[in-house]
Design goal:
The complex is a heterodimer of chains A (298) and B (780). By secondary structure, chain A is α+β, with helices and mostly antiparallel strands. Chain A is built from twelve helices and 14 strands. In chain A, the strands form four sheets. Chain A has a five-stranded antiparallel sheet. In chain A, strands 11-12-13-14 form a four-stranded antiparallel sheet, with helices on both faces. In chain A, strands 1-3-2 form a three-stranded parallel sheet, with helices on one face. Chain B has 19 helices and 30 strands. The chains are: A alpha+beta (298), B alpha+beta (780). Bound molecules: flavin-adenine dinucleotide. The site of flavin-adenine dinucleotide has 31 residues of chain A, from strand 2, helix 2, helix 7, helix 8 and strand 10.
Amino acid sequence: MKPAPFEYRRPETVEEVIHLLAEYGDEAKLLAGGQSLIPTMNFRLAQPAMLIDLNTVEGLDGLDAGDDGSLRMGAMVRQAMAEKSALVAERVPLLAETLPYVAHAQIRNRGTIGGNLAHADPRSELPAVMLALAASVTVRGPDGERSIGARDFFAGFFETALEEGELLTEVVLPPAVEGGGQAFLEVSRRLGDYAMVGVAASVVCDGAGRCDQASIALLSVGSRPMLAERASACLVGERPSRATVVAAGHAAGNQDIDPPADMHASVAYRRRLATVLVRRALTTAFERAGCVIGEGAS
Amino acid sequence: MGAHPHVGAGVLRNEDPQLLTGRAIFVDDVHLAGTLHAAFLRSDFAHGRLLSVDTSAAKRREGVIAVYTAEDLGDYWCHGPLLVPPPPIAGLTFNTATLVPLARDRVVHVGEPIAVVVAESRYIAEDALEDIVVDIEPLPVVVGLEEALAPDSPVIHEALGTNVAAHVVQQKGDYEAARGDAHTVVSRKFSYDRGVAGAIENRGILADWNARNEELTVWDTTQAPIPIRNGLAERLGLLQSQVRVVAPFLGGGFGPKMMMFYPEELLIPWISMRLERPVKWIEDRAESFFATTNERLQLHEAELAVDSEGRILGVKDVFLHDSGAYDPYGITVPINTQCTLLGPYRVPNYYSEFTAVFTNKTIVTPVRGAGRQHGVFVMERLLDFAAKELGIDRVEIRKRNFLTPDEFPHDHEILFQDSAPLVYDSGDYLPAMEKAAEMIGYRKFLDEEQPKARAEGRRLGLGIVSYVEGTGIGPYEGARVSVEPSGKVQLATGVGTQGQGHFTTFAQIVADQLGVDVTDVHVVTGDTREFSWGTGTFASRGIVVAGSACHEAAIVVRKRILSVASEALEAAEDDLELADGVVRVKGSDLSISLGELAVRANPLRGAVAAGAEPGLEATSYFGPARGTTASGVHAMIVEIDPETLEVSIQRYVVVHDCGRLVNPVIVDGQIHGGVAHGIGNAFFEELVYDDQGQLLNASFMDYLLPTATDVPHMEVAHVETPSPLNPLGVKGVGEAGAIPVGALYAQALEDALQGAVEIREIPLSPGRLFDLVQDAEADS
Ligand SMILES: Cc1cc2nc3c(=O)[nH]c(=O)nc-3n(C[C@H](O)[C@H](O)[C@H](O)COP(=O)(O)OP(=O)(O)OC[C@H]3O[C@@H](n4cnc5c(N)ncnc54)[C@H](O)[C@@H]3O)c2cc1C
């Protein structure tokens, strides 16, 4: 369990990182918290010839409030730092609620927000949160900077919209909306494990108590985190009730997803978990949005 | 001296200051100048013909010192010893296939070592592994137990012509006749799987051949330093006095570190002798899943014949046992299953037949519990099903069948793993069951709590099961007690240790005899230079066998102290007392310290009387004719989420009987650790092999050990039924906690699911429970 030989650089600016990436091309790997990359290298599943350490790069660990109520998080913000941040708790309660589910405290001390998103593990919690909140990521490369919406960023199994030579520098979380409520839930084998299924739900209710928007992001149900569109359709424009959240759960579990089986969960079990978790998460999210869930027929 | 002030007290552990401050030495902490590092090339195939191994590129890599394959070993290559020959059971079939140091011609499991690289660093050694070109022609793989026995199955060991490792029938009475008289017979199929030991410290070896002194020192993570020393000396053509094996602190062993020999254990010393440099190999976690022995599946077809009151008339059990690719440990695991199945019950007629099967998987040897889990599961489940069928309460059916104190010693008329008859020494099972039922609130739960929860849509379930555990078997252990001029006591034993608290419990036993503080008894174990005779720490035997040897040696030293003191103090021995490190004339100020007595016993002038020995020292050995029988009852309450099938343990109760408690804190610790192991086995851990014999979850990412958040607080109580087989009245406890947990989960979950499913398998998981419930719904 020792990595293959590699070279190592500690650049200090984003420009230097971009230069190094240009020079070494796909021989190079960026090192953030190392919590996913180093194990892969130790198993020799990844054998990068060049390791570019982001830990010494300036300007990647900011946690700033935008005037519009948004939140900008540098790629190198440690998961633990975000977890403990009062600003995150205030502006993006869903993220604060979710972070304790990401791995274990020791791993969150090193693991970064950017590394987690760039890794694009379909079982990861944070990509689902970004989807549910319609966040965007900022990336920089030889041609400058661009912003990519979460929907487009998570392109596939451990795959993102990052082009060769680019790095992720920042995540931008949009401002909270009046009448909004969110919730995160997952079922994992043990605390800190990747979930068998997880859901990040974000709803917005209008003044009349109708559901205006519902973003329901699921993780561990396919090759990338996904939005359960049919489930949303059960809710938008409706007055939330026991019946609508039950229907949304069923739509998510039985129509929206085509989940894989693995040694921890069969397809049918994943469908069951998605059905139940979506219903439960929505119930909580609507409550938090100040929307009373009517009994309705179920 | 009062009666045993230390034995029975929960004194703090002597070894903890070292362990808790990180000063304790483990094998990988030993750093010798000039050490080389070894890495092993292991087979990627579960079964294949090894056509060629080309190491030339690896040898050319900078920093590589040597590369060895089977061919390079010359005469040193041979099959390892049969560590535990099977007991002399009539009609037994036993086919031996012991492992080899490096594969030659054939590989029989994934991870079997093929070549070893020795380099200036482990990094270089691992780089060089990628330079080696191996040509293996894959052969059809034997994975399933039933498939392995099919006439058209590929055969793993061609010379044997069969995949049968052993076939054993043991019986008592006449089961078929008993079945004929039965009111009810319940028969079921069961499958019980187990996994790795999961010691926090993997295996490791550092060998240092000193060519000038012609001495070999080997630091080894072994539970059996003396047998390893003896075996290495023999294989390497050295005197035992030229070989020193040190097993320093171990980060857990749990059985697999009791093997002899692992290929690495045999090769690293040999390489050190050839290269005349220290050579180290530390197993990494990924290798450990393949290279360290583990336990696995048994498939049982069993039946229980009872009368109308639920009294057992007989049990029949026929099972298959997975031996893995070789069987150096004989039939220890399945015979434990066979013997432990009988439990605390009166079973007048028993028919048990097993077939141990070779498969293309890692070798199976004992892991904490060592097959006992499987047997307990079968018996407890059968009792549960019988109780249900007869409408008898599950606690009641057990009580009706418990052996009573007047039935001991109880002869089960079959042979145990140590070749001795399976005779229970002592036991009193009813009080333990009653205590456990009371502690868990059995009646109140069934009458009030469970119905109330059900009315609220919550699913609570209770489990309560019992078991016995054969512990403390021979052949022997020894101990040497010496009082030094400082007044401190040195206690050396050869048993080896793996973290159980031997530095404290053995000290307590000696301190009581010598009237000294526990902290003044310095225990040395796991170093063959300090004590030359012994076997090892396994089978829950340390306190029984080595502890008794410590006790005997301390008694002899005590006598010598009294005799020297009687002369020094001019008082009769009967008038002397030992306490606080001095010998005192009772009722007076007249005293002499143990240190002074030690000097007097080893004088520079004058003469040691003829026939006497110098010093205050004695060595004793203890070899019990057969083992002691510990027992226990576990009970728990679980809640299961009816939708997600997630399970949480609300309460966990253990009532255990390991005879006299030497140190209740340490005993509770053993039980806590055992239960954690059991929870892992029942609900988290599983070695998942595909049909090509590839292990799909060889990392702690997917092989799930229970963590602190999965293991509940345990309420532990004790019943003390002393063993008549040793002077201390003790029984073993090391494995106890792990044994009944599978049976407990099955009963509790079934109860929580209101009988929607019948659970006949371990391990379980939320996903598996979901599938079982779905299947049951589809069936009905
Ligand atoms: C035992 C364990 C349990 C875990 N459990 C979970 C869990 O339950 N949920 C979960 O979400 N995660 C889990 N993780 C993963 C953890 O969250 C990682 O920290 C995270 O996925 C990667 O972040 P990192 O900063 O460590 O990135 P690294 O490991 O350093 O990098 C990961 C990948 O991202 C690339 N990368 C890093 N930063 C950038 C950047 N700025 N721009 C472009 N590419 C970049 C790297 O090149 C690499 O390919 C677990 C990890 C472990 C070890």
